[in-house]
Amino acid sequence: MRKVVVTGLGLVTPLGIGVRRTWRRLLDRQCGIISIKDRSSEFAVLPSQVAAVVPEGKKENGMWSAKDWLSPGDERKMALFAQYAMVASEEALDDAGWAPKKEDDLEATGVYIGSGIGSLDDVYNTTVAYEKGGYKKVSPLFLPRLLINLAAGHVSMRYGFKGPNHAATTACTTGAHSIGDATRLIQFGDADVMIAGGAESCIHPLAISGFARARSLATSWNDAPSEASRPFDRDRAGFVIGEGAGVVVLEELEHAKSRGAKIYAEVAGYGLSSDAYHMTAPRADGHGPFLAMKHALRHASLSPSSVDYINAHATSTPLGDAAENRAIKDLLLGEGGKTRASEVNISSTKGAIGHLLGAAGSVEAIFTILALHDNTLPPTLNLCNPGDPAEDFNCNYVANTAQQKDVKVALSNSFGFGGTNASLCFSKM
């Protein structure tokens, strides 16, 4: 099959707008998690009153104001998650230097951008309006703003891309599935270039209520927001909801070389699996994540010993972090693996940006690509005491401070409700 490489990156995150700003702040140990209790009386009574919010402000300061980034017409037509996807796509395309005008190039370029929940605000607000005023209170833009595939649709329409136009919606695995599936579209010849990723914006009282009722959220750190997300830490007690978008430009290798494109990394492997176990809880033995990583390495024709870094899904939940830790150790310290746990390098960037749900997999894939490109492991914030000794947390979790490391091969993991798992394997060219 054809080789696929990454030639462009774009980010909208709680650390700011843009790849370089976000990456710099991440390595500087800054945190994008804030208190949201003063947003409204509805937020103030929730058990979890913290969230990782895209910062609002001036464009020149790397912050978000829709009017600075979008035309009035686009702002009106697009839900916020689609707006984030558009801005991240624009940065990724500029970074890749890909602005095709020829019909053949437009037909060979596709878009694959998904979301886990999409525009919950539109659903809630329209439902309330309909209950009060009926049919005439429903906007003609309601459904187009609601549909998850409209993020990809808007990007395709703006740039005239006529290749595959697709969207995944696989909960918190969406971003990783989008990149992996788009890679396969290129490998099988359906496109030469794909714009791929995930976007999310559902920081809404209803979403937080639902996750809180499922006992998934951090609720003990409302007065210390920046300490709430604590992957692998003994005091971890739930994830912090976040928002943003991550988009990459994927390209067939020879196509990228022929135009002299900058290449960040190769998408060397992609593994998928299912826990086949529970709607929301992971299997304690981590067998599903183990299979996803194993399949990613099999596709890449690489041994476990070759993996220099794993960007973990690790959301800061007691069960999830422990299961993933076990899966990683079973794989990397098993047959064909490393000899000591201290050689296994893992970090979770959710300590800094929270859990971006459908955008998590693509944002964290970009962090993994940058770790390869810059030979720098991003830190796991708030890791003060590794998990209970009974959970066997004895790997290198890059606690609190970034580390310099020669990285040739890296995995990026994403898992979601319903037991869906994906692992992306990136390697240096």
Automatic annotation (TrEMBL):
Keywords for this protein: Acyltransferase, Fatty acid biosynthesis, Fatty acid metabolism, Lipid biosynthesis, Lipid metabolism, Transferase
Cellular component terms per the entry's GO annotation: mitochondrion
Record bears the keyword Lipid biosynthesis: yes
Pathway(s) served: Lipid metabolism; fatty acid biosynthesis
Enzyme active site: 172 (for beta-ketoacyl synthase activity)
PROSITE patterns: KS3_1 (PS00606), KS3_2 (PS52004)
Keyword Lipid metabolism applies: yes
Any one GO BP annotation for this protein: fatty acid biosynthetic process
A matching Pfam family: ketoacyl-synt
Organism domain of life: Eukaryota
InterPro entries (alphabetical): 3-oxoacyl-ACP_synth-2 (IPR017568), Beta-ketoacyl_synthase (IPR000794), Ketoacyl_synth_AS (IPR018201), Ketoacyl_synth_C (IPR014031), Ketoacyl_synth_N (IPR014030), PKS_Beta-ketoAc_synthase_dom (IPR020841), Thiolase-like (IPR016039)
Gene Ontology terms, MF aspect: 3-oxoacyl-[acyl-carrier-protein] synthase activity
Residue intervals of the Ketosynthase family 3 (KS3) domain: 1-428
Family note: Belongs to the thiolase-like superfamily. Beta-ketoacyl-ACP synthases family.
PANTHER family in the record: 3-OXOACYL-[ACYL-CARRIER-PROTEIN] SYNTHASE, MITOCHONDRIAL (PTHR11712:SF336), POLYKETIDE SYNTHASE-RELATED (PTHR11712)
Name by which UniProt lists this protein: 3-oxoacyl-[acyl-carrier-protein] synthase
Native source species: Lentithecium fluviatile CBS 122367
Source lineage: Eukaryota, Fungi, Dikarya, Ascomycota, Pezizomycotina
